[in-house]
Specification:
single chain; about 475 residues; 2 strands; 24 helices; two-stranded antiparallel ribbon
């Protein structure tokens, strides 16, 4: 916040700070009512700009210059440039893994090996393990998450339910992994050590993931094995179009290995895309029957480059698989990129006029008790995820703002770091215009409104941290020295 240019003349009243938020929520609500699931296709993006306009009018009457607002918008856009690059590369990776047979192989072996009656809790566990290993919920969704959603759809499960299982597991791993950027950030902002933070998070995170697994186990029981009959037909249709071999998993293992070795995600994703040419040439050349004429090299280049940029649809003899074996490539991510840009415009103007800091101050003033302090932190993280549209701001701003308040009440810094993660990190995926919500929706091909109710771990985590605070369970105090 201190690095952003905020007009010193902007002394907002709380109602002025909340006015753009109320206007945005009202407009988004009506827009979704009218457009329903199509709202994310473009109208929500324009509504975000209208919300920014309302914030701009408030700023104008408080003598915040247009140039200051645009400077903050520029800073916000700069902060998400890495995320936008990752989104585009994820689009290319998904298409590359489709035509090279990697995703079909994941679906093929997944259908054969995973017991459909326990598929949902298995999806949670697999996603959690991959996320702990990589430290990234985004990488988890872009790799194993895509395959799990496809497998779930193939065996008759709702896409939103499977996506909720994937996201629940992915964010559990993201929170508990020492490789996670948000985990390191939360510990740093609160002033505690990384592993102290992780150990302390276990008091709320482990019970939450256990409840999540129990709920998904209950969901699985509602889908009898009879509903997944015909899997042999699916397997035959996959094998008819793609050459399936365990060697196809070499590329995903390399990508995961690069992430574990702390190679930057854009580099790892680019390597994963380029390496996919090898299995495509070795195993999937039959796809080129429908390709353009010319030399083999020209055909491979034309088909592969077209797939990763503008998308591809691989037709099989099974209509269910035809829906699964399609990818928009990089162009398929442009709608999500558009949403992120518009969300950053709204968040940047809100920062510039001082609305975010005013809302945060109001929340802090309510923290007269220990529970009130925890509740104010949670509310602040949620408010920033909704208004600033970025999980990093939802960790950094409350972390700076509440650090002294926790110390004044004799609370150890890990109380703050845990609350930041329990509310700032995980709820970001539940806001459609947040960078995380837009990313998860775009990568998994499932709208936030579809998976929201099933992202159990994500919306249960803030309640768990408040429950622990209310009953004063394991509330660490600052030790006297």
């Amino acid at each position: 916040m201190s690095e952003n240019k905020i007009s010193k003349k902007a002394a907002l009243h709380i109602w002025e700070a909340l006015l753009p938020v109320v206007a945005l929520v009202a407009m988004l609500g009506y827009n979704v009512f009218v457009f329903k699931d199509d709202a994310i296709s473009g109208s929500n993006q324009f509504v975000l700009l209208l919300g920014a306009a309302v914030a701009g009018v408030v700023g104008y009457f408080n003598r915040v210059s247009f140039s200051v607002m645009m400077d903050n918008v520029g800073n916000n856009l700069k902060s998400v440039s890495g995320a936008i690059l990752i989104l585009l590369l994820v689009g290319s990776l998904a298409a590359a893994w489709l035509v090279s047979g990697i995703i079909p192989a994941m679906i093929f072996y997944g259908i054969k090996l995973i017991n459909p009656t326990v598929f949902l809790p298995t999806a949670v566990i697999i996603s959690a393990l991959v996320s702990v290993a990589t430290g990234s919920s985004w990488t988890t969704s872009a790799t194993i998450g895509i395959a799990l959603v496809a497998i779930g759809e193939a065996i008759g499960l709702p896409a939103g339910m499977v996506a909720g299982a994937v996201i629940s597991g992915a964010y559990f791993g993201d929170k508990m992994s020492p490789l996670s950027d948000t985990t390191n950030l939360a510990a740093a902002m609160a002033g505690t050590t990384l592993f102290t933070h992780i150990r302390y998070m276990a008091y709320t995170t482990v019970p939450t993931i256990v409840i999540t697994l129990i709920v998904f186990s209950g969901f699985s029981m509602n889908y009898s094995v009879g509903e997944v009959q015909g899997t042999e037909v699916l397997l035959a249709s996959i094998a008819e179009k793609f050459y399936i071999t365990p060697w196809l998993f070499v590329v995903p293992l390399i990508v995961i290995g690069l992430i574990v070795k702390k190679v930057q995600p854009p580099i790892a994703l680019l390597v994963g895309t380029l390496l996919s040419v090898v299995p495509f040439v070795l195993f999937q050349m039959d796809i080129l029957i429908d390709a353009t004429s010319g030399s083999v090299v020209q055909q491979v280049y034309h088909y592969f480059m077209g797939a990763i940029t503008t998308g591809v649809e691989v037709q099989t003899s099974n209509n269910v698989l035809n829906d699964l074996f399609s990818s928009g490539g990089m162009s398929g991510m442009l709608g999500t990129v558009w949403l992120i840009i518009c969300a950053m415009v709204f968040g940047g103007v809100m920062e510039a006029i001082g609305a975010l800091s005013k809302i945060s101050e109001a929340l802090l003033s309510l923290a007269s008790t220990v529970f009130g302090l925890f509740a104010s932190t949670v509310a602040s993280c949620l408010a920033l995820n909704i208004t600033a549209s970025d999980q990093y701001l939802a960790i950094v701003v409350p972390g700076k703002m509440f650090e002294k308040a926790y110390k004044d009440k004799g609370l150890a810094p890990e109380n703050l770091s845990r609350t930041l993660e329990d509310s700032g990190t995980v709820t970001s995926a539940l806001v459609p215009w947040n960078t995380c919500g837009a990313y998860q929706s775009g990568v998994l091909g499932v709208g936030v409104s579809e998976y929201f109710v099933y992202a159990i771990f994500n919306y249960l985590s803030p309640f768990m941290t408040l429950l622990v605070a209310a009953f004063k369970i394991k509330i660490a105090q600052i030790s006297a020295k």
